Please model this.
Amino acid sequence: MTALNRVPSLMVRAGTASAFAIAAVGGSVVIPGVAADAAASTPATQALKVAASKKGSPYKYGATGPRRFDCSGLTLYSFKKAGKKLPRTAAQQYNKTRHIGAGSRKAGDLVFFHSGSNVYHVGIYAGKGKIWHAPKTGDVVRLQKIWTKSVWYGRVK
Model:
C-alpha cells in the first residue's frame, strides 16, 4: 500500500495531500532518489537523504555547505551529517572508499567520474542510473542521469 492510498480520499481528490497531511495519517513522504524506510538507517542512505534535501543549492567552487556546494563538498557534507568522515576532494574521497563494481552499486554509494586515472567529479548514487550532485558553476545541486560510462564506484567505509 502506498502512502497516498492511506490518505483520506477527500484530500487526494481535492489535491491537498501535503507532506504534513500524509504524515498526520501515518503515511510516509517519498523523495525521488532516496531509499525506502527499510534502508534509511545506514549512513549511506542518510547521506543520500541529506544530498537530496540540498536540491537547488547553488554550486560554488570550494564550498562545503550548508548553502552552497561543489561536487566533493556536497558528498563531504552529506556523509558528515550521516556520521562519516570523508576527505575534501573527489580524488581523495575515491582513495578512501572501498572500490566496487557497477553490478554491486547501491543507493548511497559514491560515483566517481574519471578521465584515465584522473578523478574529476563525484556524486551520490541514487539508484536507477542517477546521482545527486553539484555539477558546475552556474548550476545547482540536482538529480541527474549518469551521462558517461567513465565512472568508478566507491562505498564509504
Q: What stands out?
A: Helices lie at 3-6, 9-14, 19-24, 43-53, 71-81, 90-96. The first helix runs from residue 3 to 6.
